[in-house]
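Teaching assistant's notes for section 4

Start the section by putting this record on the projector. Ask students to predict, before seeing the second block, whether DMT family transporter will look compact or extended. Collect guesses on the board.
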Amino acid sequence: MKNSLRVHAALFIVAVIYAANYSLSKDVMPHYMGPFGIVTLRILGAALFFALVSRLVAPKDRIRGRADNIRAILCGIIGIGGNQLLFFSGLNFTSPINASLLQTIAPIVVVVASAVLLGEKITLLRVLGIVLGGIGAATVILSRTAGNIVYPNATLGNIFILLNATAFGVYLVLVTPLMRKYHPFTVLARIFLVGAFVAVPFGWRGVLAADYSSFPLYIWAEIVYMIVCLTILAYLLNNWALKYASPALLGVYIYLQPILAVLIAVSLGKDHFTGARALQAALIFGGVFLVSRKPKAAPAPADDAIPLEPVQD
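Reveal the predicted structure now:
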């Protein structure tokens, strides 16, 4: 029970950290630094931190075996480098609330991918959920306004956020076995090292081109927040929680982010929550709810009945 409370507390803190980032990042980019520059600073800072700490707390722990090493490389490419480049590129073009709403579409994408790649069953209820969520996501993707603010490249930004949400969902599935087998710092040190190799070629120019002398104190504070809280603390808490919780539970907390993001964005005057946004949220949440419902298991056959092929769920 005590450990369960800690897991929920950790995941709630992560949700708050991510929710605040939707608004705070808009202060930094694109005026002070571009999205790729921010991502590079985040990943390099976290890579150095986790490499140092892993040597102190788990000096003899190593990721071993070809399969685990390939999995760690994929986690670094998909969950660190690709995930963060897509997220900040998307957030640079769209509004905080739109970005937070699209984050919740990941479970629907996972169900569709499972049906296509693994042949998993899609029931009529799940089809309805996919349609509802798809309509909600499409209306968000095509939306270019937020209150009085017009985002000319919002469609492209929303697509990037959708790809980011998909990448994060795949990352959670990939990284779970590693977190349960090795020390969290060992895994994080490796995947952030891989992520650095992905991000630096895209962002080194942005890091060098920034005029740091013009940064006001609050911009420095927000950059430190993105490196320390958003990257190091959030990934650490998320991956610690994966030792005791399933990726599905982490997915549930993703649904909390838009609610918190709306409260933060509106209170800071960064965005506006309208009736249209409420309808979009209802469609997406309703779709995710229906997709998340598993088909009922088929009743066990009677002893004298002809056995049926098992239904894959």
